[in-house]
Design goal:
The chain is of the alpha/beta class. It has 17 helices and 15 strands.
Length: 549
């Protein structure tokens, strides 16, 4: 439940602190007094989008904070999932909105995103606005309400997961069938190309090697002439080195310091002889048969042709070869692959059917119980002859939310046939249906706080009395906060707050204060007749006395 709400510098509110109690609380006030501002502040705590215009003019920031206690198990699970400690099952939510539009959102001191705050907000407070009954025209809302009554949220999650799996398997199967069809269409071309590429026996870097070898072959005469001259000169130099070595060796007998040079000259002579032998061998190998040149040129032309046809490089041609081979093998094993995918799809469909049947069964059971509870509450709300029905029918094919279609029907008056509520119910009837749904669904669920924002719009008289009684009944198990303009509802509350505007220091501010005693009599009188005459005050006292009994 909401224990405390603090607001600073929000729109027309400069400073506000409200302590809420259990049971039934109402907020009333003149039109334009700022009741919607109060709701807006609470909405920001529950994850509504913040705006720079939320900040009171002349201030740098607005701050709203609230303390929620006795949180539900679902709210505690949310806290555990997000690593937030909630001692004594309580939450302190704080929202700071700066004048530049940016905001800081924390839960028990830990920063959270707006989306995360909205998730928690839905678990702490159930909000019904004056136009909430319009949501009854949306099939998704009706389905969610029935699932809440049926307790099938987890089962729905399992079904949705199974549905996604089926769709994923269908996608995989469709892609595989399309791929195999394309392969079949291109099989002749791929077989021809694969044979050509495999016969070519491609190797990375072979083209560059061939070019280098042909460069040598085409330069053979020049190389022969150059190497012949080099061998002759090196032979002469080797002979000269030998003579020099002999002279130094003889001189070293007279001067031992020359021994170092004899060793170096020996090494130089050995290296020169080795180079001479290597050059002679290289010279002997320069003679190439004409047929070898022709073979290498033919191979180079083959590689260049393949390179042009298959991607611009030998590496890309090798990749294309492997791809052709893989795709043709896939085509050969295509039926086996498709059979495996079909079997997986059938298994997923079986799981989906099982979850869907369970979901359908639970929804039908819950629908039977819920429609009776709703009918009971509608009778209390002045629709004594109304017949309410929740129809859960098997759908032609599974959908993302179940294997059924759900519709809410009503015959508002005796003798009328059941029709869809969006086709039959008036605005006032939709409001009462929404209230009946809320009371039926929320009573005893531990949601904590139920907020009604003028959902009593368009009703009055005995129906208003009935609405007030329903809210009062709901408040026996849940904290109920209602923003209302009806005295029949306001008089039934355990706590009453008055929302009003005043001027202070040349500025307009909205303030909210608790009223009781004569102040409350005056406010009920104003709601009754628009004035606080002796007669209206007497009527107000009577109304309050009746509720106190």
């Amino acid at each position: 439940m909401l224990e405390e709400l603090s607001v600073r510098n929000y729109v027309l509110i400069d400073s506000l602190d409200i302590a809420f109690s259990k049971g039934f609380t109402v907020l009333t006030g003149e039109t334009g007094s700022g009741k919607s501002i109060m709701l807006g502040a609470l909405s920001l705590l529950l994850g509504a989008k913040a705006d720079k215009d939320d900040v009171r003019q002349g201030e740098n920031s607005a701050e709203i904070s609230g303390i929620f206690s006795y949180a539900s198990d679902e709210a505690m699970q949310w806290a555990e999932k997000h690593g937030i400690e909630a001692e004594d099952r309580s939450f302190l939510i704080r929202r700071l909105i700066r004048v530049n539009g940016r905001s800081v959102y924390t839960v028990n001191g830990s920063p959270v995103t707006v989306k995360e705050g909205e998730e928690l907000g839905h678990l702490l407070v159930d909000v019904s606005s004056q136009h909430a009954h319009q949501s009854l025209l949306k099939p998704g809302v009706l389905r969610a309400m029935l699932d809440k009554a049926a307790g099938t949220i987890e089962l729905l999650s399992e079904y949705s997961s199974a549905y996604r799996n089926v769709k994923e398997r269908e996608r995989e199967l469709g892609e595989a069938e399309e791929n195999i069809r394309r392969i079949a269409d291109e099989a002749d071309y791929m077989c021809f190309s694969l044979k050509e590429l495999e016969d070519a026996d491609l190797k990375e870097g072979e083209e560059e090697t061939l070019k280098a070898e042909l460069e040598v072959m085409n330069s053979s005469e020049y190389l022969k002439e150059s190497l012949t001259s080099a061998v002759s000169e090196l032979r002469s130099a080797s002979s000269s080195l030998s003579e020099v070595l002999d002279v130094i060796r003889k001189a070293s007998r007279k001067d031992q310091r020359l021994t170092e040079y004899t060793d170096r000259m020996e090494s130089l002579g050995i290296e020169a002889d080795d180079i001479l032998l290597s050059l002679r061998d290289h010279l002997a190998a320069i003679d190439f048969p004409e047929s070898e040149m022709e073979e290498k040129n033919a191979r180079l032309m083959q590689l260049q042709r393949i390179r042009r046809r298959f991607g611009g490089s030998i590496e890309e041609a090798i990749r294309r070869r492997d791809d052709f081979r893989s795709r043709l093998e896939e085509a050969e094993n295509g039926e086996g692959l498709l059979d495996d995918l079909r079997k997986k799809l059938e298994k997923e469909k079986a799981v989906l059917a099982d979850k869907g049947e369970k979901l359908l069964s639970e929804r039908r059971k819950a629908a039977s119980k819920l429609e009776k509870r709703i009918e009971s509450h509608l009778r209390k709300l002045g629709m004594a002859a109304a017949v309410f029905s929740i129809r859960v029918e098997r759908a032609a094919s599974p959908g993302p939310d179940g294997m059924d279609s759900i519709s809410f029907l009503i015959a508002p008056n005796r003798g009328e046939k059941l029709s869809l509520i969006q086709d039959t119910a008036s605005g006032g009837e939709l409001s009462r249906i929404m209230l009946a749904l809320k009371v039926s669904l929320l009573s005893g669920t531990g949601v904590g706080t139920v907020l009604f924002d003028e959902i009593d719009s368009g009703i009055g008289g005995t129906v208003a009395n009935a609405v007030g009684e329903e809210m009062k009944e709901l408040s026996s198990s849940e904290q109920v906060i209602a923003i209302t303009h009806l005295p029949q509802i306001a008089s039934r509350a355990f706590a009453h707050y008055l929302v009003e505007k005043e001027e202070r220091g040349g500025r307009t501010i909205t303030r909210i204060r608790p009223i009781e005693g004569e102040d409350r009599v005056k406010e009920i009188a104003r709601l009754l007749s628009g004035e606080t005459s002796d007669l209206s005050k007497e009527h107000a006292r009577s109304l309050l006395e009746i509720q106190d009994k």
